[in-house]
Structures are given as C-alpha cells and as structure tokens.
UniProtKB/TrEMBL annotation:
EC number: 1.3.1.91
Role of this protein: Catalyzes the synthesis of 5,6-dihydrouridine (D), a modified base found in the D-loop of most tRNAs, via the reduction of the C5-C6 double bond in target uridines. Specifically modifies U20 and U20a in tRNAs.
Gene3D superfamilies on file: 1.20.120.1460, Aldolase class I
Cofactor(s) essential for the protein: FMN
Keywords assigned by UniProt, alphabetized: Flavoprotein, FMN, NADP, Oxidoreductase, RNA-binding, tRNA processing, tRNA-binding
Protein's recorded name: tRNA-dihydrouridine(20/20a) synthase
GO molecular function, one term: tRNA-dihydrouridine20 synthase activity
InterPro entries: Aldolase_TIM (IPR013785), DUS-like_FMN-bd (IPR035587), DusA (IPR004653), tRNA_hU_synthase_CS (IPR018517)
Active site residues per record: 109
Ranges where the DUS-like FMN-binding domain occurs: 24-329
Family membership noted in the UniProt record: Belongs to the Dus family. DusA subfamily.
Reaction(s) the record says it catalyses: 5,6-dihydrouridine(20) in tRNA + NADP(+) = uridine(20) in tRNA + NADPH + H(+); 5,6-dihydrouridine(20a) in tRNA + NADP(+) = uridine(20a) in tRNA + NADPH + H(+); 5,6-dihydrouridine(20a) in tRNA + NAD(+) = uridine(20a) in tRNA + NADH + H(+); 5,6-dihydrouridine(20) in tRNA + NAD(+) = uridine(20) in tRNA + NADH + H(+)
Length: 342
C-alpha cells in the first residue's frame, strides 16, 4: 500500500496547489490510512494530512505501517514531530521518496509526552530552532515543507512575537503556515481541553495574511460548518477542518462540492464507493471494524443517523463481519428516514 504512483508532475502539482483551500487536519488515531481513503471519496479536492509521526519513527520504525498511503490519497501531507534538524531532514527525504506531496512540521501539539520530547507547541518558544529544522527539511527534498502552529503558548499575547515566528520559518523555506488560531496552554490542560478552552483569535491569522499577501495562510480551529468555512476564505487562503470533518464528514463533501461547483452526492453513494477499498483491505487481513469506525458520523444529524452508527459499531465487532453489514446499516437508516418523513 505504499509508494504513490507519480502522475505527470504538472497535473499533480496543480492538484496540490488547488488543494490549499480545503484540508483535513492531522489527527492522531483518527486520520489513519483508512480514514483518509474515506475522506478522499467525500472531498476529491481536499488536502489530507496523516497523523503526526515522529521523525525518528520514520527513520527507524515500521515504514510500511507508519507511512501507509494509496495513490488516490494525493494530495497528501505527512506530518512530522521532532526538533532535531538532521532527523527531520532525513525523515523528509524518506517521505518525499515515499510519495507524499508535502511535509508538515508540528508546532502545535501540547501533550505532556510531546513537551517531554521538546517538540510540538513548546517549539513556539524556540523560533531559531524551528527555523533551523525547516531549513534542514527544505534542503532535504523538493517537496514543500510547511508548519502547523498555534498563536503562542501559555499567556503569550504579543502579535509581533507570533509574526516573527512565522517570518522565521518562512525565511527558512516554509511554503505555507497552518495557524490553529489559539494559544496552547502547556500547564494544567489536557490536549482535548487545549482544543477548546484557549480562546480563538482568528483576527491574528487574518492580519498575518493581510500584512503578507504572498504567504499562503491556512486557518484552523473551531470551524464546523460549510458556511463558516466558506466565510473564512474571504480572509485567508485555506481552511483546515479537524473534529467537524471526523464527526460530521458530510460537511467535507458539501464544502468540496461548493468549492469545485460539483454536484452533491447522496451519502449512501459516497459510502458505496468505499466498497472496493474495504474488500481489498479485508483480503489483506484488515478487520472491517478498523475501517468502518471512521464512517460512523456519515449520517450525523440525519433521520436514522443514530441507527446507522449503532448497527455498524455493534456489528463490526462480530467475527465474520463484512460489507454486507454496511449494506444492512444503510438500509436500516433508509427505512428509519422514510418512517420519520411519513
Ligand atoms: C483526536 C485528535 C488528534 C489530533 N492529533 C493531532 C496531530 O497529530 N497533529 C496536529 O498538528 N494536531 C492534532 N490535532 C489537532 C487538530 O489538528 C486541530 O488543530 C484541532 O482539532 C483544531 O481544529 P478543529 O477545531 O477543526 O478540530 C488533533 C486533534 C484531535 C481531535
């Protein structure tokens, strides 16, 4: 499943450039290879991100698993964690060889484990080191290197410090920044709380873009609907959706359709397009539950949506569960929808 084919570089580069407008955030344990295959069907034009992988794991670990991708998942970025320029450069080189379209450096994760390893959000306080990392990564391959950051850490409240951080990584070669538009509080909050409690300040990302019109800026944090995402595009180049894309994945489809001018497809048709992938992976020995856990939110907010989730999540754990379970969930949902409309 590794090694994306390389379509003609012009086409691939154009597709990559266009995907700046909509992306799905890197999310540990969520945006694995199966999830991305589903998201790709929903949003053919979106840029997808892997879960964060530490640079040293890329170098020394099981690459077949850690860097798994399929050709359809392009444009696809690998997100790296780490703060050692040489290791990040080596991992970037490996990622480029593997077929990733972008390598993104995580400067936003606040977990204790990450802080202990001196990477993630605490790097916002080490702009010179981050610039050194980005310079080494940029020199290691031709794939664009990008940075995902916060506005600051703890009680940082000086826009100029944030802007200097961004200017430093751009001078070092970063092609784009993703701004998760809130601070990370390094003490006292869990990673989950750190996605909700520090207040959002979108205006810092807007100002960054206004003052640096040539710099591609993608905004992230708390964007949950098609309308909210489209409104962001009046201010910045792209929107990145995290939790909303996972819990209510049809929003990705609605956004992608709005951006491309394409038709809205019914949820069931989108899901059925995943069948060849599911059957191929099951033939490789992957259990159905590992794939369908990512589709449970497809009917979020729809009549029958809870039944869909229930039939799939209960049934997928039973031995022998296969695609027929997905068909059962779809037909139960359809009947529930018809009943509620009657
Ligand atoms: C389960 C989960 C795992 C996450 N893992 C990562 C990660 O590996 N790397 C990263 O940069 N951000 C990670 N994030 C943060 C998201 O990328 C995003 O910045 C955050 O959820 C805010 O966007 P949202 O409000 O659209 O969800 C994670 C978020 C969630 C919910």
């Amino acid at each position: 499943m590794t090694g994306a084919s390389n379509p003609s570089s012009g086409t691939r580069a154009d597709t990559y450039a266009a995907s700046l407008r909509l992306s799905v955030a890197p999310m540990m344990d969520w945006t694995d290879v199966h999830c991305r295959q589903f998201h790709r069907l929903l949003a053919p034009g979106a840029r997808l991100y892997t879960e964060m992988v530490h640079a040293k794991a890329v170098i020394h670990g099981d690459r077949t698993r850690l860097l798994a991708l399929t050709p359809e998942q392009a444009p696809l970025a690998l997100q790296l964690g780490g703060s050692e320029p040489a290791a990040l450069a080596q991992a970037t080189h490996i990622a480029a060889d593997h077929g990733f379209d972008e390598v993104n450096l995580n400067c936003g994760c606040p977990s204790d484990r990450v802080q202990a390893g001196r990477f993630g959000a605490c790097l916002m306080r080490e702009p010179a080191l981050v610039a050194e990392c980005v310079a080494a990564m940029s020199a290691a391959s031709d794939v664009p290197v990008t940075v995902k950051c916060r506005l600051g850490v703890d009680d940082d409240a000086d826009y100029d410090v944030f802007a200097d951080f961004v200017d430093g990584v751009v001078a070092a070669g970063a092609a784009m920044v993703v701004v998760h538009a809130r601070n990370a509080w390094l003490q006292g909050l869990s990673p989950k709380e750190n996605r909700d409690i520090p207040p959002l300040r979108y205006d810092w990302a807007y100002r960054l873009k206004r003052e640096r019109p040539g710099l591609p800026v993608v905004i992230n944090g708390g964007i949950a609907t098609r309308e909210a995402a489209l409104a962001q595009l009046d201010h910045v180049d792209g929107v990145m959706l995290g939790r909303a894309a996972y819990h209510d994945p049809y929003v990705l489809h609605a956004l992608d359709a709005a951006l491309s001018g394409g038709p809205l497809q019914p949820r069931a048709d989108l899901l059925r397009a995943l069948r060849p992938y599911v059957e191929a992976r099951m033939a490789d020995g992957v259990a159905l539950k590992h794939i369908v856990r990512h589709v449970l939110g497809l009917f979020h907010g729809q009549p029958g949506g809870r039944l869909f989730r229930q039939v799939l999540s209960e049934g997928a754990h039973r031995p022998g569960a296969d695609w027929q379970l997905v068909e059962q969930a779809l037909s139960a949902t359809e009947h529930a929808g018809a009943r509620s409309a009657a």
